[in-house]
Amino acid sequence: MAATDVLKPDHAANRRHFIFNDEHEQLRESIRAFVLKELRPHAEEWEESTFPDWVFQRMGELGLLGLSYPEQYGGQGGDYYCNLVLGEEIVHSNCGGLAMGIAVHTDMATPPIHAFGTEEQKQAYLVPAIRGEKISCLGITEPDAGSDVSAIKTRAVRDGDEWVINGSKTYITNGHRADFIVLVTKTDPDAGYDGFTLFIVDMDAPGVIREKKLQKLGMHASDTALLAFQDVRVPDSAVLGEVGKGFYHIMWELQGERLIGAAGATASAQAVFDKTLQYATERQAFGRPIGKFQVIRHKFAEMATKIESSRQLTYTTAWRFANGEYPVREISMAKLYASRIACEVADECLQIHGGAGYMKEYGIERVWRDLRLNRIGAGTDEIMLDVIGRSYGL
Ligand SMILES: Cc1cc2nc3c(=O)[nH]c(=O)nc-3n(C[C@H](O)[C@H](O)[C@H](O)COP(=O)(O)OP(=O)(O)OC[C@H]3O[C@@H](n4cnc5c(N)ncnc54)[C@H](O)[C@@H]3O)c2cc1C
User: Fold this and answer.
1) Burial letters for 223-245: b for 16+ Cβ neighbours within 10 Å, e otherwise?
2) How far does residue 142's CA lie from ligand 1's centre (Å)?
3) Whose CA is nearest to atom 32 of ligand 1?
4) DSSP SS3 for 353
5) Distance 389 CA to ligand 1 centre (A)
6) pLDDT tens, 275-304?
7) 8 A C-beta contact, residue 226 and residue 214
8) How many Cβ atoms from other residues are within 10 Å of residue 312's Cβ?
């Protein structure tokens, strides 16, 4: 064999994954340009103040809040992968709280309206949500029930043509700014999983109380609310989906939410990896760039392998989900794995930065704090493990 025939690895090659086509790549470029120009410059300021509502309006104008919704509701008519692209690119805002607030709107609170809502509900809530004129939030968690959704106490009781809602919800993202909430309630406490019903409730309805803004470890650009519902009266038309089917509706919603979470966590891990790789080529110690120490080189190798595994698992699972399967086991695996490796990568990157990693100005400590949420929100690691374990009949 001639020397010229020897194949050399092309590490710079970057063939896109088969789930994406040219349109996705164009979308990716345009979202990245918008995020870098209009969002990222404000990241520091929004860490202090929470991000402003105009972000929803601006993203609505650009069509970014309805990428996969039908055009008849003002959406872009794209596929599920468009949402993944948004979830990945918004990471470059460098503002975890903003990415979370937007994801709650696009991939958590509005999908059940599109999937289960009446035409009237779609016109009243989905259409303005896609335009960015109405902001949404999703209320599952309560002070006494998080992982165990079946233990929620918020009750909706029928009274003539109306329902009366009493209870409380906590840790609600967008809860202070939202115009409406997709609310999980119990309508028949004796009916087990068949006793839950979803409602769409206007946040300015009498009896809806936005209690304190909760202070948290990270995601400071987002607002997180404790909410109370005191004799809130809503019409029958506020029921979302079927009475008694709310538990199943919300479990479906959680699958999409977890996949987008996995994509976002993996993209965040990649972003902090890239930033740290750059640092490791510049920072000198003992006469060489720190990246030239084998220990550090191997840290990058370990991280890169985990990030790539996470990405492949997420994309392949998204492909199954988008093609009509309901791969709950693999979605749980993707959510679990992506959340864990994102935290591990952020921790290693902080370590590689040394003291700089601990300093605010380098932004690594913020990523480290923000990503910690992924192992808790949308189903904890332990709950994901339980779903996976149970899927084997255990
Ligand atoms: C910043 C932030 C934003 C959020 N946004 C929203 C939102 O917009 N809407 C919303 O509804 N919720 C939201 N949440 C709530 C989030 O989904 C819950 O915190 C999460 O589901 C865990 O519930 P919990 O906090 O009540 O923990 P718990 O359920 O009390 O769990 C405590 C611990 O026990 C473990 N555990 C519980 N059950 C089991 C079991 N069966 N086996 C093994 N271990 C178990 C858990 O894994 C955890 O480690 C948010 C949370 C945070 C922190």
Assistant:
1) bbbbbbbeebebeeebbbbebeb
2) 9
3) 147
4) coil
5) 19
6) 999 999 999 999 999 999 999 999 999 999
7) yes
8) 13
Residue 236 and residue 163: Cα distance in Å, rounded?
A: 7
Ligand 1 site, residue 104, Cβ cutoff 6 A: yes
Integer angstrom CA distances of residue 149 from 139, 154, 214, 323: 11, 11, 21, 28
Q: Which two tokens stand for residue 158?
A: 């029928």
Q: Is 146 in the pocket of ligand 1 (CB under 6 A)?
A: yes
Cβ of 376 less than 6 Å from ligand 1 = yes
- One-letter amino acid at 44 equals E
Pairing status of strand 136-139 against strand 208-213: unpaired
The catalytic site residues sit at: 257
Q: What is the pLDDT of residues 235-248, one digit of tens each?
A: 999 999 999 999 99
Q: Please report the atom of ligand 1 found closest to the CA of residue 218.
A: 1
Identity at 244, one-letter amino acid code: G
Instruction: Report which of 60, 68, 75, 239 is spatially closest to residue 157, judged by C-alpha positions.
Output: 239
**Ligand 1, atom nearest to 173 Cα:** 8
- Residue 173 Cβ contacting ligand 1 at under 6 Å: yes
- Is residue 87 within 8 A of residue 107, CB to CB? The reply is yes
Kindly report the length of the chain: 394
